[in-house]
Design goal:
Distance between the termini: 15 Å
Order of helices and strands: EEEHEEEEEHEHEHEHEHEHEHHEHE
CATH class of the largest domain: Alpha Beta
Largest sheet: 7 strands, mixed
Radius of gyration: 20 Å
Number of helices: 10
Number of domains: 2
Number of strands: 16
CATH architecture of the largest domain: Alpha-Beta Complex
Helix content: 25-40%
CATH topology of the largest domain: Quinone Oxidoreductase, Chain A, domain 1
CATH superfamily of the largest domain: Medium-chain alcohol dehydrogenases, catalytic domain
């Protein structure tokens, strides 16, 4: 028997339950994993709260590092003992052991330890698709990245800086502003006392930016559109403050023939080739030192309730790992 976090109903952190589970033998195309570290991500809150509906009862979590314990039939590129990581469905990463489709796993380089891998796969590959594929940022670009002191934000600030971009970030406190600046953010706007639209216009000489990356959602939607230059792209990739309200397309024309997209990592890594390419580019920027992953909080997996409380209370910075 092993343990896992399960939910039987949606709601606050208290719905997370630490229970005993049976993990069977892997089927065709599957492997059984002994997990070592699990990543905590805001999408977990969306699943737990019901914002992103799922069939219940259910496990939770999309990211972990692990060791292969057993291999099912048809699996040829993994063997017992291999170190692997993932950031993909099926949901259920909050577990000591589990079954996982082999094609959703990537092998870990020796230089990337398990805790680091669990902290970087989902957030790091999110940054990879956002700044390398959704909008290919190039040297000399100025971009606005909301929640710059969060896990995704700190990785993005460093990676954008390595690409030669000027990074404008929004944060909730002076301490978080210093943290963002230490990771490559050129202009950290404390949104609790500064109007971020006015500051972006001031920084860009009134032009605005070609792209805004926004994981906050409802609270920043209108302001984000006002920060865009003509023909700019609004990348809405999260809903930390709640879902974006219905969009009047006429607003996009009035504000400068703007573009809007709502991408997800799961779409951008649906093909095995894209998953491997994304992970490899992430591994390379981390190994090169261009991006340093900050694991600023760890909790035992059994204490996931407290981890969720702290995440939603914005008490966390950088990445958070649940240890197994």
């Amino acid at each position: 028997m092993t343990h896992a976090i399960r939910i039987e109903e949606t709601g606050g952190p208290e719905v997370l339950r630490w229970v005993q589970m049976e993990v069977g033998a892997p089927g065709e195309g599957e492997v059984r994993l002994a997990q070592t570290a699990v990543g905590l991500n805001y999408i977990d809150v969306y699943h737990r709260s019901g914002l992103y509906p799922m069939e219940l009862p259910s496990g939770i979590g999309l990211e972990a590092a692990a060791r292969v314990e057993a291999v099912g039939s048809g699996v040829t590129d993994l063997k017992e003992g291999d170190r692997v990581a993932y950031a993909a469905p099926p949901i259920g990463a909050y577990a000591e052991a589990r079954l996982m489709p082999a094609h959703r796993l990537v092998k870990l380089p020796d230089e990337i330890d398990d805790r680091l891998a669990a902290a970087m796969m989902l957030q790091g590959m999110t940054v990879q698709y956002l700044i390398r594929r959704t909008h290919q940022v190039k040297a000399g670009d100025t971009v606005l990245f909301h929640a710059a002191a969060g896990g995704v934000g700190l990785i993005a600030c460093q990676w954008l800086k390595a690409l030669g971009a000027t990074v404008i970030g929004t944060v909730g406190s002076d301490a978080k502003a210093e943290l963002a600046k230490a990771h490559g953010c050129d202009h950290a706007i404390v949104y609790t006392r500064e109007n971020f639209v006015e500051r972006v216009k001031e920084i860009t000489g009134g032009e605005g930016v070609p792209v805004v990356y926004d994981s906050v959602g409802r609270d920043t939607w209108e302001g984000s559109l006002d920060c865009l230059a003509q023909f700019g792209l609004m990348v809405s990739f999260g809903n930390a403050s709640g879902p974006v309200p219905p969009v009047n397309l006429g607003v996009l024309s009035a504000k400068g023939s703007l573009f809007v997209t709502r991408p997800t990592l799961m779409n951008y890594t649906a093909k095995r080739s894209d998953l491997v390419a994304s992970a490899n580019e992430l591994f390379e920027v981390v190994r090169s030192g261009a991006v340093k992953i900050e694991v600023n909080q760890t909790y035992p997996l059994a204490e996931a309730v407290q981890a969720h409380r702290d995440l939603e209370a914005r008490k966390t910075t950088g990445s958070t790992v649940l240890t197994v």
